[in-house]
# Entry
Amino acid sequence: MSAVIKGVGVVWSVGAITFTAGIVSATNAGYTQSARFSRTSEKTEIKDNGGIIRAQVFHGYKKSISITIVPQGSSVANARSSMDAHCLTPGTTITVVDDSGTLLDASYNLISATQNRTVDGVATIDLELEQGDESNDLTTAVS
# Structure
């Protein structure tokens, strides 16, 4: 998307979020429509004898990304192949690279892939990805 920014600098639009593992194939071209990134953790509260919270312990840090993609191809048949190719098995490792910053850049586990189709709209794919947020690689299979 072309844009002219005047005034103060802002991040405009989704930019180029690319996949460099797992989801990459000759048949899964798509346009990223939206991306939602979050950092979360579990929380344990420590209370005194009167029930007053005296401390909070944050642990189990996690990075999550929700991405919506419009599958596309050079023909309708190729777009259909792209739609199917985006719906991988949960647990597939997908490496994400964002041209708007480095916070998203990591290898993630695919939690879910959902195809969305309506009677009067374009088909989309929703991807839910997760990764530990403590510099631990949680994407390598253990045997």
Remarks:
- The CA atoms of residues 66 and 128 lie 5 Å apart.
- The radius of gyration is 19 Å.
- The chain has one domain: 27-132.
